[in-house]
Automatic annotation (TrEMBL):
GO annotations of cellular component type: extracellular region; membrane
EC number: 3.5.1.23
Catalytic reactions of this protein: an N-acylsphing-4-enine + H2O = sphing-4-enine + a fatty acid
Signal peptide: none
Protein name, per record: Neutral ceramidase
Length: 699
C-alpha cells in the first residue's frame, strides 16, 4: 500500500496540498530533459575469483528482537496519508526481528531484519549500517545486510528524510526515527551475540484464505502463461518458512507470505503491527511464552513474518477496507495473522529440505531514473529506457480496497484522471517524446523525481542461503512482477521457482512495481509505478546480472548509496504540557476498575498521565496487569499483549488521561498498574511516576 494513499476523510486539506504541489511542479514537468540522453546501463560484473561460494558443512545462526515502537500520541500515521489519522494510543508494540546467519565453511555472514514498520527508508538503512560499521568493522556491509518492513499501516510516521512521505505527518519526527534506528540496530546486536551452531531447513505450504487480488482488472491483462501459475483466484498462496533449529529445538523461523498489512483501516489510531505482527506475537508470546520485557537477551523463540510480492495482495477479503472475513477490523487482524501462523507452522512440520551449499550475496545501487533496458528483457524486443520518477493520477485516487479511496476528483484507470493533470501530461509528453515513450499512458500528477521528493538511486539485492534465493527490492511488487523476477533467477541458477522469493520493502522505498501490461491499465498500482512502463524489465535486467555474478563467482561494483536529502523537521507534538488539575498527581487513578468482572469482558481504568512520547519505554511497558498468587503479584499482561489497549487524551485531569483496557481470560484477583515519565518544569528533565488501581475480581 502506498504511504500516501489519500483518504476519504479531511479531503479539503489534502486537495489543497496536492493542488498547490501540482501547480508548483508544472514548470518542472515542462522542463524534464530527454531520458534517452541521460540513459546509462546498469553496473557490469568484473572478474574476481575470491567470491566463489564454498559448500558449507553447517551453519551458525543468531536471533534477536528489539522494540521499534514510535511516538504513540500526536504523530501522523504512516500508510494511508489520512490527515486526521494521528496516533492516539497503543494496541501492540512494534518490533524488529533480526537473524544473523553464517556459513561455517566460508565464514560468510548474512543479516536479515523484519521490522514491524511501514517502510525501510534510505536514512534508516544508512544510519543502521553506519552503526554496524562502528561496532563490527567490515563484518556487516552493504551486500550482506537486508533490512525489510512488514508494511504495517498502523505505526507512527515522520521517519523518512524524503518529504514526500512526511507531507501528511507534520514533517520528520526525531523520536520515531530514533526509535526505529535504535531498535533495528539493537535487534542485530542481539542476533550477533546469539550466534550458535544451527540447522537450517526450508518448508513450503499453501495459505489460500488470507489474501485476495485487489487489482484484478490490471492482473487480467497479463499473458495466460503468467496467470496460469496463480490459478483462477489470481493470488499467490505460497507460504515459505525457513526453520532454525539449535540442539534439535525449533527456536527461530522466517516466513514469507504476500499480503498487505492493512487489516486495520484509516479509522484506527492505535499503534499496531497489524496482521503480520499478530502472527509473530502469537507464535512467540501465546504459543511459546516469550516475555518481551524480561526475555530480551534470550527470547527462546523468534518468528519473523516477512513480505514477498504483496503489491496487489489485500487482507480485506471482501475488497473493502476493514472487511473480510468479518466486519470487525481487529478481529480480521487476528484471523488473517492466525492463518499466516498456521501456514508457517505447517511449513515447519511438513517434509522439509535441509539448506546446504553455502552463502552468498550481492547488492548494487542503480539509478532507476536512467536505465537502458536491453531488448532481451523488454516485451517488444526493443531497447527502452526508464525515466525520472512520476506519480500518476490513479495514485491520488488511492486503493479503494485497502485505503478507503482517495480524492473524489480522481479514479483508477487510464481514463479516470483529472483534466488539469491530463493537460500537464500532454504538455510534458509534447515537450519530451522520450518521457511519453517511458511514462505513457500515465497521467502525471506529481513529477516527484524532478524535485527530489523520492529516492531514485535504489539498492537491488540478491542473497543465496543454500538452496534459497531472496531478491531484495525497495518496491511493492505485484505477484506477476515477482514471478517474472523469480524466473530470471531460476533461468540463471537452475534453482526451482518455489525456492526463489522476492522480498519487497527491502533496504529503501520506491512505491510500486507492475508488469508493463498492468502498467497500461493505470490502476492504483500502475499509477504508483514511478519509473515508467519499463521499470520491471529494468529490474529483471539487474536481477539477472546479480544472479549471474553469484553463479559465476564474480564481483559487482556496489556503487554509491543515495545521499541524504534536505527534509522538513517535524512540528511540535499536539500536546505540549504535562501539567494536571489542582490537587492531582501523575499516576492517580481517576476511574477504578469494576470490583467484579467476567472473563471475556473488558476491564477499564483511567490514570492521570503525562505525554507518553516523553519516554517510549522500549524494553519495558506503560502498563502491567498483575494477578495475585500465593507468592505475590505476577504480571500477566502488558502493553505488548493483544488483550490490552491504551488511549491517551485530554480529560478529567485537565492534562493527559491514559485509558487502559484489558480483556481477561482467566478468573482471579488482579490489579492494574500504569508507568510514565513527566517533564519537570523549566526543562529540568523527566520524573518517573506510576499508579496502581485497587484490586478487582475476575470470575
Amino acid at each position: 500500500m502506498n504511504p500516501l494513499t489519500p483518504s476519504t476523510r479531511r479531503r479539503p486539506r489534502l486537495l489543497v496540498a496536492l493542488s498547490a504541489l501540482g501547480l508548483a511542479l508544472v514548470t518542472a514537468v515542462i522542463n524534464i530533459p530527454s531520458t534517452s540522453a541521460e540513459a546509462t546501463t546498469t553496473p557490469h560484473a568484473t572478474a574476481a575469483g575470491t567470491s566463489t561460494p564454498t559448500s558449507g558443512t553447517g551453519w551458525l545462526a543468531g536471533r534477536g528482537i528489539a522494540d521499534v515502537t514510535g511516538e504513540p500520541l500526536g504523530v501522523g500515521m504512516m500508510g494511508y496519508a489520512d490527515t486526521s489519522q494521528f496516533t492516539e494510543g497503543l494496541h501492540q508494540r512494534q518490533r524488529s526481528r533480526a537473524f544473523v546467519i553464517e556459513d561455517r565453511a566460508s565464514g560468510r555472514r548474512f543479516v536479515h531484519v523484519t521490522a514491524d514498520i511501514g517502510m525501510i527508508f534510505s536514512n534508516i538503512r544508512n544510519d543502521v549500517m553506519d552503526r554496524l560499521a562502528k561496532t563490527y568493522g567490515d563484518t556487516y556491509g552493504e551486500q550482506n545486510v537486508m533490512l525489510t518492513a512488514t508494511h504495517t499501516h498502523a505505526g507512527a510516521a515522520g521517519f523518512s528524510h524524503y518529504n514526500m512521505y512526511n507531507l501528511f505527518s507534520g514533517g520528520q519526527h526525531e523520536g520515531t526515527e530514533s526509535a526505529i534506528v535504535d531498535g533495528i540496530f539493537r535487534s542485530i546486536v542481539r542476533a550477533h551475540d546469539d550466534l550458535a551452531p544451527a540447522e537450517l531447513s526450508l518448508g513450503i505450504s499453501e495459505v489460500d484464505d488470507a489474501n485476495v487480488n485487489r487489482s484484478r482488472e490490471a492482473y487480467d491483462r497479463n499473458p495466460a502463461g503468467d496467470k496460469a501459475f496463480f490459478g483462477e483466484r489470481g493470488t499467490d498462496t505460497q507460504s515459505t518458512t525457513m526453520s532454525i533449529r539449535r540442539n534439535g529445538k525449533l527456536d527461530g523461523v522466517i516466513n514469507w507470505f504476500p499480503v498487505h498489512a492493512t487489516s486495520l483501516p484509516t479509522s484506527n489510531k492505535l499503534i499496531s503491527p497489524d496482521n503480520k505482527g499478530y502472527a509473530e506475537y502469537h507464535w512467540e508470546r501465546e504459543a511459546r511464552g516469550v516475555d518481551y520485557v524480561t526475555d530480551s537477551d534470550d527470547p527462546g523463540m523468534v518468528s519473523a513474518f516477512a513480505q514477498t510480492n504483496a503489491g496487489d495482495m489485500s487482507p480485506n477479503l471482501a475488497l473493502k477496507p476493514g472487511t473480510g472475513p468479518t466486519d470487525d477490523p481487529f478481529k480480521n487482524t487476528r484471523i488473517i495473522g492466525g492463518r499466516q501462523y498456521q501456514g508457517a507452522l505447517r511449513g515447519t512440520e511438513a517434509t522439509q529440505q535441509e539448506l546446504s551449499g553455502g552463502l552468498d550475496s550481492r547488492l548494487v545501487y542503480v539509478d532507476m531514473s536512467k536505465v537502458e533496458v536491453g531488448r532481451e528483457f523488454t516485451p517488444d524486443g526493443k531497447v527502452h529506457h526508464t525515466c525520472k520518477a512520476a506519480l500518476g493520477a490513479p495514485f491520488a485516487a488511492g486503493s479503494t480496497e485497502d485505503g478507503g479511496g482517495g480524492l473524489p476528483i480522481f479514479k483508477e484507470g487510464k481514463d479516470g484522471g483529472n483534466p488539469v493533470f491530463d493537460l500537464i501530461s500532454k504538455i510534458a509528453y509534447t515537450a519530451s517524446p522520450a518521457l511519453k515513450a517511458c511514462q505513457a499512458p500515465k497521467e502525471i500528477a506529481l513529477p516527484v523525481g524532478v524535485v527530489g521528493m523520492v529516492q531514485q538511486k535504489l539498492p537491488v539485492q540478491l542473497v543465496r542461503i543454500g538452496d534459497l534465493y531472496l531478491v531484495g527490492l525497495p518496491q511493492e511488487v505485484t505477484i506477476t512482477s515477482g514471478l517474472r523476477l523469480r524466473r530470471e533467477v531460476a533461468e540463471v541458477t537452475g534453482a526451482p521457482i518455489d525456492h526463489i522469493l522476492v522480498n519487497g520493502y527491502a533496504n529503501a522505498y520506491a512505491h510500486y512495481l507492475t508488469t508493463p501490461e498492468e502498467y497500461d491499465s493505470q490502476e492504483y498500482e500502475g499509477g504508483s509505478t514511478l519509473f515508467g512502463r519499463y521499470q520491471l524489465p529494468a529490474y529483471q535486467q539487474v536481477v539477472s546480472e546479480l544472479a549471474t555474478s553469484i553463479e559465476q563467482g564474480t564481483e559487482l561494483e556496489v556503487g554509491t548509496r543515495a545521499g541524504d536529502p534536505a527534509y522538513v523537521p517535524g512540528t511540535p507534538a499536539t500536546v505540549s504540557s504535562d501539567s494536571l488539575g489542582l490537587g492531582l498527581h501523575h499516576g492517580d487513578v481517576l476511574t477504578e476498575p469494576s470490583a467484579s468482572n467476567r472473563t471475556g469482558e473488558e476491564v477499564k481504568a483511567v490514570f492521570a498521565a503525562a505525554n507518553p512520547d516523553n519516554d517510549l519505554r522500549h524494553g519495558d511497558t506503560y502498563l502491567s496487569v498483575e494477578r495475585r498468587t500465593g507468592s505475590g503479584w505476577v504480571r500477566v499482561a502488558d502493553d505488548g499483549d493483544w488483550s490490552t489497549k491504551i488511549r491517551w487524551a485530554t480529560g478529567r485531569s485537565l492534562g493527559i488521561d491514559a485509558t487502559v483496557t484489558w480483556v481477561p481470560e482467566q478468573a482471579g484477583t488482579y490489579r492494574m498498574r500504569y508507568f510514565g515519565a513527566a517533564r519537570k518544569p523549566l526543562g529540568a528533565g523527566l520524573k518517573e511516576f506510576s499508579g496502581t488501581t485497587r484490586t478487582f475480581q475476575v470470575r
